[in-house]
Amino acid sequence: MTVLGDILWLVFGGFLSGLGWIISGIVWCVTIIGIPIGLQCFKLASLSFLPFGRKVRYEGQAVSFIVNVLWFIVSGFILALGNFILGCILTITIIGIPFGKQFFKIAKLAMAPFGAVIES
Predict the structure, then answer these.
(1) Contact 115/58 with Cβ under 8 angstroms?
(2) Which of 18, 37, 48, 93 is 20 to 30 Å from 104 by CA-CA measure?
(3) What sign has the CA pseudo-torsion 25, 111, 6, 88?
(4) Is 119 helix (H, G, I), strand (E, B) or coil?
(5) Phi, psi of 119 (to 5 degrees)
């Protein structure tokens, strides 16, 4: 069931969400200081491309809080807003509710991705 959900996910906007994470990762990797942040973006792009059957667990730390604040100002707000809007659009129909829930999960992750662990 997760394979079918992931295939439909890519059609209904998951590809755009994953592409946003990849573009953000490339932009962060332009600077040497931003490379760790860019690598995290690439890891989260894999979740954004195939979200069904995967969970996110948050482990907050002081360093991750500081990086999350910087992330939210530079890239996080735009990614979170885009995923939130797509989630709202998809939850209008009953069939789109599972996809909308995945977009909301990714929007929450886009606001604070550092300190988050993706579980299969």
Answers:
(1) yes
(2) 37
(3) negative
(4) strand
(5) -110, 140
Burial status of residue 99 (CB atoms within 10 A of its CB: 0-12, 13-18, 19 or more)? buried
pTM of the model: 0.85
User: Which DSSP string do the residues of 25-78 spell out, in sequence order?
Assistant: HHHHTTSSTTHHHHHHHHHHHHHHHS-TT-EEEE---HHHHHHHHHHIIIIIHH
Look up residue 14 and give its two tokens.
């998951």
Q: Is 6 helix (H, G, I), strand (E, B) or coil?
A: helix
Q: Is 72 exposed, middle or buried (0-12, 13-18, 19+ CB in 10 A)?
A: middle
Paired tokens of 21: 């994470």
pLDDT in tens, 69-116: 888 998 889 999 999 999 999 999 998 898 899 899 999 989 988 888
Residue type, 92: I
